[in-house]
Amino acid sequence: MTLQPLEGKRIACIGAGNMAFSLLSGLHRAGIAGIELRVTDVVSSQLGKFAALSARTGTDNRAATDDADIIVLAVKPQVLPAILAALPLAPHQLLISIAAGIPLRTLAAGSAVNQPIVRCMPNTPALVGAGITALFANAHVTGVMREQAEAFLRSVGRAVWVQSEADLDAVTAVSGSGPAYFFYLMEAMVRAGVELGLPPDLALELTRETAYGAALLARNSEHDPATLRANVTSPGGTTERAISLMNEARCADGIVRALHGAAQRSAELAKDS
Description:
It contains eleven helices and eight strands. By secondary structure, it is an alpha/beta fold.
């Protein structure tokens, strides 16, 4: 899919944080014909960086969204209900929410009757154009609107649709929180490198480049991670010793339990919203 479904659209983004900047930067780089970007935030100092994107900026949410085709909610979950309540939304406007933990029922309760709504769960690699976002649409989202929502999120990486809203809890555990798990492993690798006598900057560089290379191999290979791991684990070698010790520590089981915990917490947050 190209970004063509967004041509000529007026897109208003409420919230001027890093993810909003990443998303609108992706659209700006794509050079979509006739697109109009608008950004609002209660903290006016947040808006300066959006000038480079040729975006209209301000603090008035109603003015920015009044005739917008697509409205993006990129604010903290705790302030979202109040923001929605103050917006004069209409059923022809597509509402895209990237607010974590806010379920469709809460979004619908603060919107117009039959409001088309898409919930999204992006992750932080979107900040460098390498994100992956899961999307779920309510029944009022048309086929054209689905194309628009997908095109919007594809501007910063890949986009996939899930079959149920509950799937977003699993997505949160795997990819939403996922970057932190890899950073956690990288922290441990750097620590081990230093303990083994490497200078901290060298241990960090080796870890970063190894993580980057392994991710590229996994992404571009026809093999699954288990096969890729086996391919570099020679019998009786150094990698086998390391993997054996990880298995003794039940590292894999701990990771699986951790992701189940993250999914459970995501469901709890949605229930409380």
